[in-house]
Amino acid sequence: MLPGNGLPGCGRTSSTYFQELTQDIQAYVRSSMPVWRERYPGVEQLKLAVMGCVVNGPGESKHANIGISLPGTFEDPVAPVYVDGRLMTTLRGGDIVNEFKKILDEYVEARYGRSAQEEQLIEVR
Predict the structure, then answer these.
(1) Would you say 14 and 88 are in contact if contact means Cβ atoms under 8 Å apart?
(2) Which of 51, 48, 35, 60 is closest to 113 using CA atoms?
(3) Tens-digit pLDDT profile for residues 58-115
(4) Whole-model pTM?
(5) N or C: which end of the chain has fewer CB within 10 A?
(6) From residue 95, how far is each of 24, 38, 52, 79, 119 by CA, in Å?
C-alpha cells in the first residue's frame, strides 16, 4: 500500500492538512529506506498504509504491517495506528507525524532487525 492511498471521492484526501501529514511521512520513509535496506534485510516487503479516512482507514490499515488513519482539515488531531492488524495506539495532538515516525522506526527494528533474524533462525532449527 502506498502512502496517501484513499478511496475515490474521499474529501479527507484532498484536505491540505492530510496532504501535509502524508507528505511528511512519505518523505521520511523515502529518506529512511536506503539506510533501512542496508541494516534490515527484507524491509522492502514492508506494507505501510497512510490513510485519510477515519471510517475506512482502520480497515485498510489492518491489512498493512503498519498503518495510520490521519485526520483531515478541521478534524480533531486523532490518528489510530494499527500494527500487524491490531490497534496499537491512538495518537493525539499536534505531534502525530513525529510520534508515528518513532513507532515506524521501532517496528522496522523489531520486525527486520538482527534480533528478529536470530529468532527466525532459532525457529527454523
Answers:
(1) no
(2) 35
(3) 778 888 999 998 877 777 888 999 999 999 999 999 899 999 999 999 999 999 997 6
(4) 0.79
(5) C
(6) 12, 28, 17, 11, 34
